[in-house]
Amino acid sequence: MALLRNNNTLPLFETSKASLRHRLLMSIALWIPRYERCSCKECEVFSGIFGNAFWHQNLSHTMHHWLNKQSTRILPMAAFPHLRKICNSGFIVDSKGNNSYLIHPKRMALSTLYISGGRSLLVTPETSFLANKYMKLHQPGFRHERVVVDGFGHSDLLIGEESSKEVFPHIISHIRLAEEGKNVVMISKGKSCSKAALEWAADPYQGYGGCETCGRTVCAMELIYHFLYL
Ligand SMILES: [Zn+2]
Ligand SMILES: [Zn+2]
Asked: SUPFAM superfamilies annotated for this entry (predicted)?
């Protein structure tokens, strides 16, 4: 477990001092299949570990440079055992693997907005579909909305060059409407909504083919972990 100990970090800079195990992990990460390849070594290591988090064409050169050369200098490894438990469970669990969050929907008495990328990568739009459905069911008195923005993947929704025009207006309008007290978008109560409830039960994104790359990355990382533990 040496690599995944608490407070252990993976230096992403090529010039950084890295242990043999870290260098090994980085070179294995470079082999892992992904949607987009990049000429930047740090970006390649990062997307080998997580999968591509954004579509490159949506980021400016300045943002890409800042992200890889200034922002993410080191990668904390302590979260990975927890992330693995979440991935294996298929929903959020605590660090011991217990379902201790989703059983308390009453604690989440607030409005929510879900924004998914329509050009799916890393996570599928299904995640926001299910979260929105969960909140509409358990907190029907609050405003819950979901938007799928065409052409975006995952983190490019927030750091993309066009985010201020394509994405942020959805956030601003949601905050405004929630503050104005226009909370209820669709009330999931009573007989009249049973048809709507049925429609929500169907997954509108069946054609996306699931989270194949994500699954592949997790499987590949599992193999790496086993290899490094031995
Ligand atoms: Zn890149
Ligand atoms: Zn993310």
From this structure: alpha/beta-Hydrolases
